[in-house]
Amino acid sequence: MGAAGLAATVLAATVLAATRIDAKGSMFIGSYEHSLDPKGRVSLPARFREVLSGFNGDPRLVVTTNVDPGGRCLVGYAYPEWVAFHEKIAELPQFDENVIRLKRLHIAGACECAPDRQGRILIPPVLREYAGLGGSVIMAGVGNCVEIWDSVAWEAERERAKESLPQINDAMARLGL
C-alpha cells in the first residue's frame, strides 16, 4: 500500500468515525482558548466535556499527534471513537512501511487523558513539545475530534487555510456541498 492508499484509508477511518457521533447527536465544534499551566494541564471546555459524557459516560480523550503535514497540533478523540479508528488501522497490512510509520507516529504517541475534578487534562511533555504548546492553547472542535494548538500556530494555520479558500471551494463543489 502506497502513501496515497494509506492516506485514503486514514481519511476513510476518520469519516467512519465522524459518522458515528455520540448518542446525543453532539459533536466537537467551536474554538476555545485556555492557558496551559506549568504542569502541562489545560482545561477541557465544558462543551467538550458534555460531548464526551455522551459516549456512555466515558470522559476520556485520547490525545495524539496529528497526521497533517501542514501544521503541528495534537488531536483528541473520544475513547470509543479512538477504538473504532484503531480497529480500522489494525485491518491495514501490518508490514507496509507507511502503516508502520503511521502506527509509530499516531498510535504509539497517543495518551489517554481523563479530565480531573476541575475539568483539566494533563498533556504529556512529549506531546506538548511536538505541538509547541506554550502558555496559550486553542482547543478547536472539528467534528469527530478536538485539535489542540499553540495559539500562535493556530492563527498561522487559520491564515494558511484562508489563502486556500479557492481550492477548498473547488473541492466542496466537486463533493456537491
Task: Describe the fold and architecture.
This protein is α+β, with helices and mostly antiparallel strands and 177 residues long. It has one domain (3-174): Chemotaxis protein chec. Helix content is 44%, strand content 23%. It has 7 helices and 8 strands; from the N terminus they run αββαββααββαββαα. It has helices at residues 3-19, 46-53, 79-90, 97-107, 125-131, 151-163, 165-174, and strands spanning 28-35, 41-43, 61-65, 74-78, 111-113, 120-122, 136-143, 145-150. It has a 6-stranded antiparallel β-sheet, with helices on both faces. Helix 1 packs antiparallel against helix 3 (79-90). The chain is globular. Residues 3-23 have low confidence and may be disordered.
Offer a concise description of the structure.
With 177 residues, the chain is of the alpha+beta class. Helices cover 44% and strands 23% of the residues. Strand 7 and strand 8 form a beta hairpin.
General form: globular
CATH class: Alpha Beta
User: If helices are DSSP runs of H or I spanning 4 or more residues, what is the number of helices?
Assistant: 7
Fill in the CATH topology.
Chemotaxis protein chec
Oligomerization: single chain
How many strands?
A: 8
CATH homologous superfamily label: Transcriptional regulator MraZ domain
Question: What would you say the CATH architecture is?
Answer: 3-Layer(aba) Sandwich
Q: Please tell me the total number of domains.
A: 1
Summarize the amount of helix as a percent range: 40-55%
The end-to-end distance, rounded to whole angstroms, is 30 Å
Structural class: alpha+beta
Average pLDDT number: 85
Biggest sheet strand order reads 1-7-8-4-3-5
Give the SSE order as H and E letters.
HEEHEEHHEEHEEHH
Low-confidence sequence ranges: 3-23
